[in-house]
What we know:
The complex is a heterodimer.
Chain A: H1 10-19, H2 22-28, H3 34-55, H4 65-95, H5 101-127
Helix pairs in contact in A: 2-3, 3-5, 4-5
Chain B: E1 3-5, H1 7-14, H2 18-25, H3 29-36, H4 44-53, H5 58-61, E2 62-64
Helix pairs in contact in B: 2-3
Amino acid sequence: MNSKFIYLSKKRAISLFLILQIFPFLMVADHVSILKNVGLWIGFEVIIIGLIFLWQLKPIKEFDEREKSIVLKWKGRIIDHGLGVFMIPLVTICIYPEIEAWTLYCIAAGPAYVVFIIYHILMKKELGYFFYES
Amino acid sequence: MNITNNLKKIRLEVGLSQKEFAEMCEVSRQTIHAVEVSKYTPSVELALKIAQNLELAVEEVFQLKGKK
């Protein structure tokens, strides 16, 4: 069946990887060891690619009108609240600029994943995939 | 919701399961269930398709609340 979702193709993954190369420059500015910088860099890339994979989970079938409206509603919420979560590190760095990159990374990535996973579960629940009701 | 329906009653009278009826209407079983319990108001297209599959007029399946 046809699907209107955009998948993480090889070409898109390479483009994404190239875009993500800006992160080491941000990390280098933090004056921590090279190893830690590399770790953080890889971590950021894994987080971002992971979020994109979650976003573009392939549906096993074509959605009907009700399912499409539910998916759109929850994806809208993910954008709103997910971006809200990314405000946490931005606000933190404004208030406390001496914060370590590792801490910043944890407070950015952790809540973002939680929002994505919880919202996907709630979306699946609303779609009626968990319980059989008749 | 301002729209009620007696889809479940009619479907059971016809002897169709939710799954069979969903396949006839080209939607998921969950959507048929959501329509039956008035959790979801179908589009005009789906409402017409449901009525057509039951060989009834759309207003025999769906009614505005408070109208007979």
